[in-house]
Request: fold
Amino acid sequence: MNNLILKAYNLHKRYPSGYEKLDVLKGLDIEISKGEILMVMGRSGAGKSTLLHILGGLDFPSEGRVLMNDVDIYKLNDSKRASLRNEKIGFIFQFFHLLPEFTALENVMLPAVINKARRAGRKGLRKRASRLIEQVGLSERANHRPGELSGGEQQRVAVARALINEPELVLCDEPTGNLDSENSGRLVDLLKELNNKNKQTFMIVSHDETISEAAHRVVKIEDGRIIGRS
Reply:
């Protein structure tokens, strides 16, 4: 694949641990191309979530660079980096992080409400959110609150929410981790469909090997280092 969206070089991440430092990432290089599904696979503690947080502009690396469309995101100030993150990157987490007082439709709309550049008026925004809710198969559940939805339905709402600002890249952190095998399969099928129909780019970090069937590429990490690519 070409048309690189994101490139990261020599990523290190160290955390204080008593009188020493804990090395979580140890010199990772990674690239993500437009229109691909990239899976980063590894066991718990391998450094997958730390890598995702750094690539998504959520946590500074101790060393290394992250370039999105050739912009070094950690040379931006906090405000500009937050704007880039909100406009260019969507996030799907293991825990759905839906606001319980809002309906499914309102939860999907929230990132666009925050993003001034994407505001198209309340009516236009609601229409786009409704299309996304339909695309993830939840039209009949749009006005239900999270407590009235199953885990699989909540995760599909989270997928729609991640897409509301038309991000170039969606980062998924153990997206099937809170789902049973049936709903995990449905979610993977949904991500494949969104990739096929919309050419949506995904990076998925997980220890769930079944997700690898949907990926164009798989990068395996262990103890903060890349140990294989396929």
Remarks:
- Helices lie at 48-55, 78-88, 104-114, 121-135, 151-163, 181-198.
